Amino acid sequence: MKIIKKPASETWNKLCKRATINKDSLQGTVQNILNNVAQNKDAALKKYTELFDGVALNSLEVTNKEVIEAEGLVSGELKSAIQLAKTNIEIFHNSQKEVSKKISTIKGVTCWRKSVAIEKVGLYIPGGSAPLFSTILMLGIPAKIAGCKEIVLCTPTNKEGIVNPAILYTASLVGITKIFKVGGAQAIGAMAYGTETIPQVYKILGPGNQFVTKAKELVQQQGVAIDMPAGPSEVLVIADETSNPVFVAADLLSQAEHGADSQAILVTTSNKVAQNVIVELNNQIEELSRKEIAKKAIENSFVVVLTSKDECIEFSNKYAPEHLIIASDKASEYIEGVINAGSVFLGNYSCESAGDYASGTNHTLPTNGYAKNYSGVSLDSFVKKITFQEVTKEGIENLGGAIELMAAAEGLQAHKNAITVRLKEISNV
Amino acid sequence: MKIIKKPASETWNKLCKRATINKDSLQGTVQNILNNVAQNKDAALKKYTELFDGVALNSLEVTNKEVIEAEGLVSGELKSAIQLAKTNIEIFHNSQKEVSKKISTIKGVTCWRKSVAIEKVGLYIPGGSAPLFSTILMLGIPAKIAGCKEIVLCTPTNKEGIVNPAILYTASLVGITKIFKVGGAQAIGAMAYGTETIPQVYKILGPGNQFVTKAKELVQQQGVAIDMPAGPSEVLVIADETSNPVFVAADLLSQAEHGADSQAILVTTSNKVAQNVIVELNNQIEELSRKEIAKKAIENSFVVVLTSKDECIEFSNKYAPEHLIIASDKASEYIEGVINAGSVFLGNYSCESAGDYASGTNHTLPTNGYAKNYSGVSLDSFVKKITFQEVTKEGIENLGGAIELMAAAEGLQAHKNAITVRLKEISNV
Hints:
homodimer; alpha/beta; Rossmann fold; 15 helices
């Protein structure tokens, strides 16, 4: 892992720039898949599943029998772990419920917002190298709390046409009953357009490979909402003398094992911290089952040594990390300075793994610098906030004149007239 | 305005379908404009402004002198009206501030969210047939309340290179100081990429024509957030025997005057109400300055007569109107049933004009059926909600085992190891 010492501030932008992924080349392929799914529905899904995943499926929907069988294949220990995570995620996402507050802006005018669930949502869960059942908790729990009426889950099978048992167990635990054996861009098309078997949804959430990401981008342009744009996962760790190099190295590596394109950045004011972490990292990496992936990710990663705590947080804000770990006994001193980050982990025992699985926060977060302008998934992702207003006669009397003037100045006479007819009626009574 | 009596429920989908706008033909043109702006910056902006708007500008930025001059051109009455609207919009949007709540999910684990302003936002304000200074209130006020550090406003000028005085006055009142004389797709490109004069922003909000909408869609794919996808404006009015046909007609027309592609739908259980409203509408439309536009919009609009109140609200939810007016003394009885709508106006005195200008609610709302999956603009549109977590030693002891099991089951050994090294250190102390 290379160390960059006191980089001039002009070079920070370049350091913070993510590798560009050219997804344009995928556009044609993915658009074709989507068009085909829109037209040929289930038949197209089965064709692509055979072509890309090497499985010929008779039926796309996971049966109740399969779910029950899966439950028998998950160990009691793992079930308890998933239940513990579920409880914490429920507690935190329940706390995100917004209570409607009626606001009187002027006498006779009352305005409020009401959170109403998006009726139909689709969750995409990858099933490739890592069966991400934890993501079902992160998407399914807030969808349930929000009250989404229809929750559809698509996930690919293995070569035998079987969905990972932990995925089926977790989906069932959360209360998701519509599970379909389809992955890739074709799954996104299925949920966007609907097929004979798979219901159409209004919003699609969940991680995926480049094809999935491109498909989400394309259906978004057709009016289907998505959680957020996606990119490779990343962590930035700010570490000081009170950090533990063993912990920091482990945290950097837990990011690095995600994919060869992941980034793990260490920012510190201390050369010694930098050196110690690198020594630890080089030791730990050799022990990892996914060490080839982690090594590639570490090649794209770096350590920055800066001159002050303020510079560290400034660099972090410029990078806008998905995960920000502040490995310091004095982590709370950094909170005010955090402007751009997806999720922040404070102190030496707050590791990213905690938030990834079980602390209660969501792990679906903005990557690729999108923490500058996007929030992670939360209860908000599953609701619309509808505004309501009630204007009485008195309200119209208080507002009417101002509205008439403004509408006239904008050249919108019919807008003005909607007030005029009411004021006239009121004065005639 | 045609009346559709008791349409069979199978036909509702077709009735609720908006006219398809084929924006694909614009893609090439708009992409070219964007590429040119990315490359040639201010020079490209000046070129396009001359080409499309017929104005040769020396300087793109509105000067302080121009703002002061504009203030002199706006009547005292209109200024007071705008100030009244500003106060109400401030009250309502201030009430949307989220207070951070620290949640203990399990002993030793504390999680919370914090709203942090998006640092740089760009507001687009059309200046064409209607100078929409009201939209500056709707976008600028929440941007200021959120605490956005850089607020950029782009708006086209008239043929003399002058921005409408009410636009400059309102921007200044709200506290926006960076105002640029540029419109169309080129303005969106300028804010997305930055030029010598115009700062780059992370999120672009505001209405516009098809070119502006397409440009927003395209820069969104490059990581710039946008408020929401756009389509023609629309209202759906549910009216019963307690409604006033004069008011209902005026409300339908205030929507219709927006554009020839606007839709104004009346839903009622009463043939008599339908007939009375149509008579009124035909009278009022003749008096409008924008009657040609309104007449075209009314051609695309219709009245649906249904059999029950429940059917009315069901139809409305299927249509998912931007504006829903419930013209009834018993409007509150409908509230629970509203699932898909941008903003709801309750009762006979709550006209859309009120919310468009001065009641306090936002008028930037989801159109085109997007009320199924998008919210209107609010304070939320200008912040990211960053999650924080603090896990103590006790927290790791409570969560660690579960996380180890889950990480192992997902095949992510380094995630597991980040816990293991901590548990080991704790047990060694």
